[in-house]
C-alpha cells in the first residue's frame, strides 16, 4: 500500500519541481498545484494507510469497534486542501494582476523589487514568454 | 452559453445542490460531510449558475456581497468560540444543549455553530475570488 | 581632538548640565570610599562573597567576590574614575551631548566594576561584553567623525570576537571544573591543569585576554581607540578596559598558570608586545598617540610578568599595575590639558609651556619621573622589581631581562619627550594662547602624580595593604611582600642606571630613530591595522559575491538552490545512515495501479502540453486521481473535499488562463538548463518517495488517534471523527485556517478590483 503512495508522491514531486523551475509563471503555478497534491498525500501516508473503513463511529457504539482509518491526518489534509485552494486562487489572481502591470510572466524579468544590477547571469536561449503571445 | 434549456435546468440543479450542501453541513457531525465540504458544493453550484446566467445573476441571487458572507462567517466562528469563554471554559470549548422536541432529542452545540461559520467563510471567500474574476470588463 | 568641540557647542546649557558636571563625580567617589572600607578586612586575609540566583537552570549566579586582586582593580576604577568624571565636566563643558557622555561613562564604569568583582564565569562574561559595548559608545562618541566610527567598530569587533572565544573557554572551564564560580575553580586549580581540555581552555581564555589587553598581534585597535575624547582615553588606558585582560589572566592564574604552556605563551607574547610597542611609541609625533603606544608596551610587560610563577615576578606585575595606572592617567590628562589649552598635540609645535601652565608642568614632571622609573617615585620601585623578577624567572631570564631593558629604556625616552618637549625650551606659537587649566582639570593629574611620589617614598602604605593581598590572590598562597625604595647596590640597580642612559640616548637621537622605524613600518608586508582592513574588505567582497550568486532576485535560482540542498542533505543523510527502506509488499489491487497511471498521465500531460486547455484537463486528472486514492483508503470526507476543490480549481484556472500568455515557451534555459532542472526534479521526487517509505516503516504512535476515537461520541457527541476533530478538538486550528482562506478571498478580490479601477482612471 505504502509503496504505491510513495511512488505516486515521487512522481508528483518530480513533476512539480520541474515545473516550478521554469521561468514561465503559469508553469510555476501548475507546479504549485501538483506540489500541494503531493504534500497532502505525504501527510496521508504518514498516518499509515490500509484499505480500512472510514473513521466513523457506528450508531449505538461509543467508539469504533474495528480498526478504522486514521482520522487525524484526514482532518489535517482536509483543511490543507482548502487552504491550498485559497493559496492557489490568490496566486492565480496575483499572476493575472502582475501580468497586467508588468506585461510579462517571465519570472526572471519580474525584478521590480530586486533590480538586476549585474546584468543577466544566464543567457536565455529560448524566447521568453512575452506579451505578444497573449493575443 | 445563452441557452434557455441550460438556464432553466441550471436553476433546478443549483437549487438541488444548495439544499444538498446544507444537508452535508447538517449531517457532517455524524456522517461524511461538514462545513468545508458543504461550502465547496455550494460554491460549485454558484460557479455553475454564473456560467449559465452570468455573475450579475449570482449577485442578485446572493443579495449580499460575498465579502460580507466571508466576514460574517468568520464572526460566527469566533462567536462560537467566545461563548465558551463566557461560560468559563477555554476559547472554542464545545457547549451542548439537547432540547427534546416531540420526543426526539435535538443535539445543538457550539461546534455546529462553528461549522456554520466555516461554511459561510469558505463560501464567501471562494465566491469573492470567482465573482471578481468573472466581472472583469474585458 | 575633542577639545575644540567644546567651543563649537552653544555656550550655557542650562543649570541641568552644570549640576550634572558637579554631581557626576560624586558617584565614583562614593563607591571608592565604600570600597576603601573593605581594605582592612582584605589586608587581614579575608575575602567577601555575595551571590544571588540568576539563571539557576544554567548554574548561572549573580555572584561577586572581593579579594586583594579585585579590590585593587575596583579601587583604581573608582578612584581614577572620580578624577575622570570631574575632568570631563570641564573638558566637554557646553558639549550638547554631555549628559549622554556621562551616561556612557557611568555604564562603562559600572561594567568594569562588575567585571573585576564577578565570581561567576558567566557573570564575568556578561560584564566583559558590557565593557566592550560601552567602550564602543565612548570611543565613537564623536560620531560625526568617520575615523571615530571606524575605530570604535574596530575595537568592538576585535575585543568582541576575543570575548566570544573567551566565552567558549569559560564554558569548557566550567564544565571541566564542575563549577562556574571562580572562587571554587581556583580552589582546585590542579584538577584543571591535568584535565584533557586544559590546552583548549587556555587558548580560548587567552584569546579573550590578549584581544582585550591588546597583545601583539591584536594590539592595533588600542592606539586607534584614542579617537575617543581624552578623558575616555585616560580612563580606558589607565585603569579600565585594557586592564580587563590583565585582570583576567591574574584571576585565572591559580587555575591555568604555572604550566610550561602558560609561561612560554605569556612570556613570548608579552615580550614581543612590549618591545614592538615601545618602538612604535618612539616614532609618533602626536603626544596622545605616543602615550597610546606606551600603554600597549605596559600591557606587554604585565603579560610577561604574569607568566611568572615566582613571587617576585608577580609582585613586579602588581606594582606595575598600580604605577602604570597612576602615571598613565596623569599623562593622558596632561596631554588633554595641553590640547585643550593650546589647540594642538603635535610634539614639534609645542614648547616652553612651563611658565604658562606651572601646575600642569609639575604634575607632568612627577608622572614622567614615575614613568621613567626615577627614584624616589613608585615607578622606580616598580622597575627594580621588574628587573629582579625578570632575573628570577625560571624560563629564559636573560631574554626577559633584555626585553624589559629595551622597553624600559624607550619608556625613558618617551617620558622625556612628553615632559621636556612641550614644557621646556623656547615658547612656540600655538593655535590658542596657553593658560593654566581650571582646577577641575589639573587636580586629577596632580593628585595621581603626587600619589606616585608618596607611595614611592613610603612604599609601606600600599605594599602590605594592597600589593601583598593581590599577590596572594594571584598565586593563591600566602606570601610576604614588602616594597622597598633602596635595595642596595645590586644588579637591578645597575640595570636601572643603564636604562636611563640608553633612554636618554634614544631621546637625544629620537629623530633618526623615528625615521628608521617609519621606514621599517613602510616596508613591512602588513600591519595589524592593514590586515584588519583587508579582512573586513574581504568579508564584504565575499558577502557581495555570495549575494550575487544566491540572492540575485531570480526566483528559479532560489528554488534550485533550496531543492538541490534538500536533495543532497536529506538524501545524503538517508543513504549514509542506512535509512533507505525498500518496499517489500507490492500487492496492490489492480485498480490502484490504474489510479497511479491516471496521476502519472496527468503529471506528464501538465509538463508536456503546450495547450492551456490540455493543462487544465491534465491537472484535473491528477486531482481526481488523488481523490480516488483518498476514497480507497477510507477518507470519504477528504475525497469529497478534493473533488469539489478540483472542480473549483478548474473554474478559477479557466477564468484566469485566457488572460495570460500561452505555454509555447517552457521557460528552461537551453538544453543544459533543461537537463539540470530535470535531474534536480527527479532527485527531489526520489528523495521524497524514499522519505515516505522510511517514515512508514517506523511504528506509528496512535495514542492521539485513539483518544479522538474514544472521546468523539461521549465528549463531543459526533460520530464523524474527522469532523469532530475539525470543529471541536482542534477547532482553533480550523479557525486560523478559515481566517487565512477569508483573507485570501478578500485580497484576491481587492487585487482584481484595483486593476479595474486603475484602468478606469486612465
Structure description:
The complex is a heterotrimer of chains A (135), B (138) and C (762). Chain A is mainly alpha-helical and 135 residues long. Chain A has helices spanning 2-20, 25-46, 71-102. Chain A has one domain: Helix Hairpins (Orthogonal Bundle), CATH 1.10.287.3510. The longest helix of chain A is centred in the middle third of the chain and has 32 residues, at 71-102. Chain A is elongated and about 65 Å long. Chain B is mostly helical and 138 residues long. Chain B contains 5 helices and 4 strands, in the order H-H-H-H-E-E-E-E-H. Chain B has helices at residues 4-27, 35-53, 55-62, 66-86, 110-134, and strands spanning 96-97, 100-101, 104-105, 108-109. The model of chain B has no long low-confidence stretch (mean pLDDT 86). Mean pLDDT of chain C is 86; it is low at 1-13. In chain C, strands 1-2 form a two-stranded antiparallel ribbon. Chain C is elongated. Chain C is mainly alpha-helical. The chains are: A mainly alpha (135), B mainly alpha (138), C mainly alpha (762). At the A-C interface, helix 1, helix 2 and helix 3 of A face helix 26, helix 27, helix 28, helix 29 and helix 30 of C.
Topology:
The complex is a heterotrimer of chains A (135), B (138) and C (762).
Chain A: H1 2-20, H2 25-46, H3 71-102
Helix pairs in contact in A: 1-2, 2-3
Chain B: H1 4-27, H2 35-53, H3 55-62, H4 66-86, E1 96-97, E2 100-101, E3 104-105, E4 108-109, H5 110-134
Chain C: H1 3-8, H2 14-23, H3 26-36, H4 39-43, E1 48-55, E2 60-66, H5 68-91, H6 98-117, H7 121-139, H8 146-177, H9 182-187, H10 189-193, H11 198-212, H12 221-224, H13 230-238, H14 242-256, H15 260-282, H16 287-306, H17 311-342, H18 358-372, H19 378-392, H20 397-423, H21 439-457, H22 460-475, H23 491-508, H24 510-523, H25 528-550, H26 555-576, H27 590-608, H28 612-632, H29 636-656, H30 670-697, H31 703-716, H32 721-729, H33 731-761
Antiparallel strand pairs in C: 1-2
Helix pairs in contact in C: 2-5, 3-5, 5-6, 5-13, 5-17, 5-21, 5-22, 6-7, 7-8, 8-11, 11-14, 13-17, 14-16, 15-16, 15-20, 16-17, 16-20, 17-18, 17-19, 17-21, 17-22, 18-20, 18-21, 19-20, 19-21, 19-23, 20-23, 26-30, 27-28, 28-29, 31-32, 32-33
Amino acid at each position: 500500500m505504502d509503496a504505491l503512495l510513495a511512488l505516486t508522491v515521487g512522481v508528483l514531486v518530480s513533476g512539480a519541481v520541474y515545473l516550478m523551475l521554469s521561468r514561465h509563471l503559469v508553469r510555476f503555478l501548475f507546479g504549485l498545484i501538483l506540489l500541494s497534491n503531493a504534500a497532502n498525500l505525504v501527510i496521508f501516508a504518514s498516518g499509515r494507510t490500509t484499505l480500512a473503513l472510514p473513521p466513523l463511529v457506528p450508531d449505538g457504539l461509543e467508539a469504533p469497534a474495528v480498526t478504522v482509518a486514521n482520522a487525524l491526518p484526514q482532518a489535517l489534509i482536509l483543511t490543507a486542501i482548502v487552504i491550498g485552494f485559497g493559496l492557489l486562487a490568490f496566486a492565480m489572481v496575483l499572476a493575472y494582476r502582475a501580468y497586467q502591470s508588468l506585461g510579462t510572466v517571465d519570472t526572471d524579468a519580474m525584478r521590480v523589487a530586486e533590480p538586476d544590477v549585474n546584468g543577466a547571469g544566464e543567457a536565455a536561449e529560448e524566447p521568453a514568454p512575452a506579451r505578444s503571445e497573449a493575443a | 452559453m445563452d441557452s434557455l434549456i441550460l438556464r432553466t435546468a441550471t436553476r433546478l440543479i443549483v437549487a438541488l445542490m444548495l439544499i444538498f450542501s446544507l444537508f452535508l453541513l447538517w449531517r457532517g457531525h455524524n456522517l461524511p460531510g461538514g462545513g468545508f465540504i458543504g461550502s465547496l458544493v455550494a460554491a460549485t453550484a454558484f460557479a455553475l449558475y454564473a456560467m449559465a446566467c452570468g455573475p450579475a445573476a449570482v449577485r442578485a441571487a446572493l443579495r449580499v456581497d460575498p465579502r460580507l458572507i466571508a466576514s460574517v462567517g468568520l464572526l460566527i466562528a469566533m462567536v462560537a468560540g467566545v461563548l465558551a469563554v463566557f461560560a468559563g471554559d477555554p476559547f472554542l470549548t464545545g457547549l451542548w444543549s439537547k432540547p427534546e422536541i416531540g420526543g426526539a432529542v435535538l443535539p445543538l452545540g457550539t461546534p455546529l455553530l462553528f461549522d456554520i461559520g466555516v461554511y459561510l467563510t469558505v463560501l464567501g471567500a471562494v465566491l469573492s475570488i470567482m465573482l471578481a474574476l468573472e466581472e472583469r470588463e474585458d | 581632538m575633542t577639545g575644540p568641540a567644546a567651543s563649537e557647542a552653544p555656550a550655557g546649557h542650562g543649570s541641568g548640565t552644570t549640576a550634572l558636571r558637579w554631581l557626576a563625580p560624586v558617584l565614583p567617589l562614593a563607591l571608592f570610599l565604600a570600597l576603601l572600607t573593605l581594605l582592612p578586612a582584605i589586608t587581614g586575609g579575608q575575602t567577601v562573597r555575595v551571590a544571588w540566583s540568576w539563571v539557576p537552570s544554567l548554574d548561572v549566579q549573580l555572584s561577586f567576590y572581593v579579594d586583594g586582586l579585585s579590590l585593587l582593580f575596583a579601587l583604581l576604577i573608582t578612584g581614577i574614575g572620580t578624577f575622570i568624571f570631574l575632568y570631563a565636566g570641564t573638558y566637554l563643558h557646553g558639549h550638547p551631548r554631555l549628559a549622554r557622555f556621562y551616561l556612557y561613562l557611568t555604564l562603562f564604569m559600572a561594567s568594569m566594576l562588575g567585571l573585576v568583582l564577578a565570581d561567576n564565569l558567566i557573570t564575568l562574561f556578561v560584564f566583559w561584553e558590557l565593557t566592550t559595548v560601552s567602550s564602543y559608545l565612548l570611543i565613537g562618541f564623536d560620531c560625526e567623525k568617520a575615523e571615530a566610527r571606524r575605530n570604535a567598530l574596530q575595537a568592538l569587533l576585535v575585543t568582541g570576537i576575543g570575548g566570544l572565544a573567551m566565552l567558549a573557554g569559560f564554558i569548557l572551564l566550567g564544565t571541566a571544573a564542575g563549577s562556574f564560580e571562580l572562587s571554587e575553580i581556583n580552589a582546585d586549580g590542579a584538577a584543571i591543569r591535568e584535565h584533557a581540555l586544559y590546552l583548549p581552555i587556555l587558548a580560548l581564555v587567552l584569546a579573550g585576554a590578549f584581544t582585550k589587553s591588546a597583545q601583539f598581534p591584536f594590539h592595533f585597535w588600542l592606539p586607534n581607540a584614542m579617537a575617543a575624547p581624552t578623558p575616555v582615553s585616560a580612563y580606558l588606558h589607565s585603569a579600565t578596559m585594557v586592564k580587563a585582560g590583565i585582570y583576567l589572566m591574574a584571576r585565572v592564574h591559580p587555575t591555568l598558570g604555572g604550566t610550561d604552556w602558560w609561561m612560554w605563551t605569556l612570556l613570548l607574547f608579552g615580550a614581543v608586545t612590549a618591545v614592538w610597542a615601545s618602538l612604535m611609541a618612539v616614532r609618533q609625533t602626536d603626544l596622545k598617540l605616543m602615550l597610546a603606544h606606551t600603554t600597549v608596551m605596559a600591557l606587554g610587560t604585565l603579560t610577561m610578568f604574569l607568566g611568572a610563577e615566582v613571587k617576585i615576578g608577580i609582585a613586579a606585575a602588581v606594582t606595575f599595575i598600580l604605577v602604570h595606572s597612576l602615571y598613565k592617567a596623569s599623562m593622558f590628562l596632561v596631554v588633554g590639558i595641553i590640547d585643550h589649552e593650546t589647540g594642538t598635540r603635535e610634539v614639534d609645535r609645542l614648547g616652553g609651556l612651563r611658565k604658562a601652565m606651572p601646575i600642569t608642568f609639575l604634575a607632568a614632571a612627577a608622572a614622567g619621573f614615575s614613568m621613567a622609573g626615577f627614584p624616589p617615585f613608585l615607578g622606580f620601585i616598580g622597575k627594580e622589581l621588574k628587573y629582579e623578577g625578570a632575573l628570577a624567572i625560571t624560563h629564559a631570564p636573560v631574554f626577559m631581562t633584555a626585553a624589559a631593558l629595551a622597553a624600559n629604556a624607550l619608556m625613558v625616552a618617551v617620558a622625556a619627550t612628553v615632559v621636556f618637549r612641550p614644557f621646556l625650551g623656547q615658547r612656540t606659537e600655538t593655535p590658542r594662547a596657553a593658560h593654566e587649566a581650571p582646577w577641575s582639570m589639573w587636580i586629577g593629574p596632580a593628585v595621581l602624580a603626587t600619589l606616585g611620589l608618596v607611595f614611592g617614598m613610603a612604599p609601606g602604605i600600599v605594599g602590605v595593604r594592597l600589593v601583598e593581598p593581590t599577590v596572594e590572590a594571584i598565586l593563591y598562597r600566602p606570601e610576604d611582600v614588602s616594597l622597598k625604595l633602596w635595595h642596595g647596590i645590586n644588579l637591578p640597580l645597575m640595570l636601572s642606571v643603564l636604562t636611563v642612559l640608553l633612554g636618554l640616548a634614544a631621546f637625544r637621537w629620537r629623530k633618526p630613530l623615528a625615521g628608521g622605524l617609519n621606514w621599517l613600518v613602510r616596508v613591512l608586508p602588513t600591519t595589524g591595522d592593514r590586515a584588519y582592513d583587508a579582512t573586513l574588505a574581504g568579508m564584504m567582497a565575499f558577502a557581495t559575491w555570495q549575494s550575487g550568486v544566491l540572492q540575485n532576485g531570480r526566483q528559479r535560482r532560489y528554488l534550485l538552490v533550496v531543492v538541490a540542498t534538500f536533495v543532497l542533505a536529506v538524501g545524503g543523510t538517508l543513504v549514509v545512515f542506512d535509512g533507505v527502506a525498500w518496499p517489500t509488499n507490492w500487492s496492490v489491487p489492480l485498480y490502484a495501479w490504474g489510479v497511479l497511471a491516471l496521476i502519472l498521465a496527468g503529471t506528464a500531460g501538465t509538463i508536456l502540453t503546450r495547450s492551456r486547455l490540455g493543462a487544465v484537463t491534465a491537472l484535473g486528472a491528477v486531482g481526481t486521481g488523488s481523490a480516488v486514492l483518498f476514497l480507497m483508503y477510507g477518507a470519504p470526507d477528504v475525497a469529497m473535499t478534493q473533488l469539489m476543490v478540483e472542480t473549483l480549481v478548474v473554474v478559477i484556472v479557466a477564468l484566469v488562463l485566457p488572460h495570460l500568455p500561452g505555454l509555447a515557451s517552457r521557460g528552461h534555459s537551453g538544453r543544459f538548463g533543461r537537463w539540470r532542472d530535470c535531474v534536480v526534479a527527479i532527485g527531489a521526487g526520489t528523495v521524497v518517495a524514499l522519505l515516505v517509505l522510511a517514515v512508514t516503516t517506523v511504528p506509528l504512535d496512535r495514542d492521539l488517534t485513539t483518544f479522538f476515537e474514544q472521546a468523539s461520541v461521549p465528549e463531543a457527541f459526533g460520530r464523524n471523527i474527522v469532523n469532530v476533530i475539525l470543529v471541536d478538538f482542534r477547532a482553533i486550528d480550523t479557525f486560523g485556517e478559515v481566517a487565512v482562506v477569508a483573507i485570501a478571498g478578500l485580497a484576491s478580490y481587492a487585487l482584481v478590483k484595483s486593476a479595474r479601477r486603475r484602468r478606469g482612471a486612465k
